[in-house]
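In response to reviewer comment 3 from the previous cycle, which asked for concrete evidence that the modeling workflow produces usable outputs, we include below a single protein chain processed end to end. The sequence was submitted unchanged, and the resulting structure tokens are shown without manual editing.
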Amino acid sequence: MTEINLGNWRKTSEEHQKQYKNFLQRANKNEVLKKLPDLDEEAYEKIDCLQCGNCCRNHSPRFKTPDIKRISKRLKMKEGDFIETYLRLDNDGDYVNKTTQCQFLGADNYCGIYDDRPSDCARYPYTAEDVLLKRPQLTLANSQICPIVVHVLEKLIGVKQ
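The workflow returned the following structure tokens.
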């Protein structure tokens, strides 16, 4: 399979959603899990997150209790004040950002709390772990936000054929 056109990854993702869905439903879990670390590393070598920032602009991570404690401490805020200022409860009862674009994303696409960011952010886009297969709807949604997901899926489908 040809290299993903990074300028056109959104189009690739749109055109291949059905293929991605079929692959995720039928993939051999053990085979895929063996390949993910290398494919994830390869994707990060080819794609610079600082040139993108779509994840931070388009959806919020969950802020779990350890995240709230850690970030509040970094910002020298009381946990309650941090929650009141930045977070809201979503339909699942999880704390998420009040705004669609993360309040900690700088104009240069750097994260203002990078070393203390939520665990969801540190793990995103889940291309090195079993979440890719366990939560196919999330993977499909992420493929429309993140070129790294598209790169990994394209490589997996290419290897599979």
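The chain has two domains: 6-50+124-160, 62-123. We consider this sufficient to address the reviewer's concern, and the full set will be provided in the supplementary archive.
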